[in-house]
């Protein structure tokens, strides 16, 4: 889908070349290079503009970012997911559990990417899949997709500069300290393609802040904030502390409470890539997460009705 961005030049940008102005607004070298073939990519006061054209106060600058192709290797498949927010530049999704975000070996038609491709195919719009923050297959919650190259470039820079505040909720076994910080490097487990571990010799820096919110039924509800974004960071760090997430098939495969790791991307706070407005999105906590905290699961052969009868 094409994106047209309009700027009215203010005094502080007078005398600036268009190229420099666009770079200051987040246009990457890749985007600017791609615009060269489009004669109508830059219009200055309704006339063709050039990279070295000088801007004056009151000028009207219009920039068009063409996007004519969709992500060709992603098969559109109807999937269930809810949309928290959408505009011309971003799509914020509440991702369900048991849904990878990208196609991979063995996961070609069951991913969020497939569902988003279907969503835009039904609208007759081209769409390149650009995921800004990433969640594990069974992690639920708020996820940002960039709808054009410019919003992707700006949001990616925000991620690198730690300007996107990510708030997670997790259930953990036991009762951790009221609050704390885990600073422990994470590396891939030798011989595994997916499993990670704390490794002070070969790991990459990883920092997680946590706060205990509530305690019940032998587990704790914890709020977490990430300074870094290592693979499985929260799951590995909480296990390292001695408070693993129940239902985590890799790091704590105990399924009496829940059948997946209870980890939820609860809130995302960031600056809108084009408008500059401050955005805050909250994803409702899934039912299985809530039940795992308040009502631990019973074995499959023992229904809740029979439990109630026995207790009575």
Question: Can you walk through the features of this model?
Answer:
With 312 residues, the chain is an alpha+beta fold. It folds into two domains: 3-65, Roll (Structural Genomics Hypothetical 15.5 Kd Protein In mrcA-pckA Intergenic Region, Chain A), CATH 3.10.290; 82-294, Pseudouridine synthase. It is 20% helix and 28% strand. The chain has helices at residues 18-24, 29-34, 112-122, 149-160, 233-241, 287-294, 304-311; strands at residues 3-8, 42-44, 47-48, 60-65, 82-86, 90-95, 140-146, 165-173, 179-183, 186-188, 196-198, 207-216, 219-226, 263-271, 278-282. Strands 5, 6, 7, 8, 9, 12, 13, 14 and 15 form a nine-stranded mixed β-sheet that branches. A hairpin with a 2-residue loop joins strand 2 (42-44) and strand 3. The longest helix is centred in the middle third of the chain and has 12 residues, at 149-160.
Overview in brief:
Helices cover 20% and strands 28% of the residues. The protein is of the alpha+beta class and 312 residues long.
């Amino acid at each position: 889908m094409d994106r047209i961005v309009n700027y009215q030049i203010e005094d502080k940008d007078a005398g600036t070349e268009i190229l420099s102005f666009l770079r200051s607004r987040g246009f990457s070298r890749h985007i600017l290079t791609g615009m060269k073939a489009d004669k109508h990519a830059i219009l200055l006061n309704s006339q063709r503009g050039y990279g070295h054209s000088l801007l004056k106060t009151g000028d009207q600058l219009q920039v068009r970012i063409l996007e004519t192709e969709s992500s060709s290797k992603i098969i559109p498949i109807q999937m269930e997911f809810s949309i928290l927010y959408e505009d011309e530049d971003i799509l914020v999704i509440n991702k369900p559990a048991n849904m990878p975000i990208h196609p991979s070996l063995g996961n070609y038609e069951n991913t969020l990417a497939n569902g988003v491709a279907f969503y835009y195919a039904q609208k007759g719009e081209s769409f390149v899949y650009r995921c800004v923050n990433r969640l594990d297959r069974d992690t639920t919650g708020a996820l940002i997709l960039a709808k054009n190259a410019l919003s992707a470039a700006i949001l990616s820079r925000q991620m690198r500069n730690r300007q996107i505040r990510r708030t997670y909720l997790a259930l953990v076994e036991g009762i951790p300290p009221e609050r704390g910080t885990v600073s422990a490097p994470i590396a891939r487990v030798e011989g595994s393609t997916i499993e990670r571990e704390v490794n002070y010799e070969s790991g990459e820096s990883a920092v997680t802040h946590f706060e205990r919110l509530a305690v019940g039924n032998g587990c704790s509800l914890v709020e977490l904030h990430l300074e870094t974004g290592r693979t499985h960071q929260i799951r590995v760090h909480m296990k390292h502390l001695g408070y693993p997430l129940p239902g985590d098939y890799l790091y704590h495969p105990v399924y009496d409470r829940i059948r997946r790791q209870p980890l939820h991307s609860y809130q995302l706070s960031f600056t809108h890539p084009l408008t500059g407005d401050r955005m805050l999105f909250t994803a409702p906590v899934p039912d299985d997460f809530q039940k795992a905290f308040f009502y631990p699961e019973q074995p499959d052969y023992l229904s809740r009705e029979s439990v109630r009868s026995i207790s009575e």
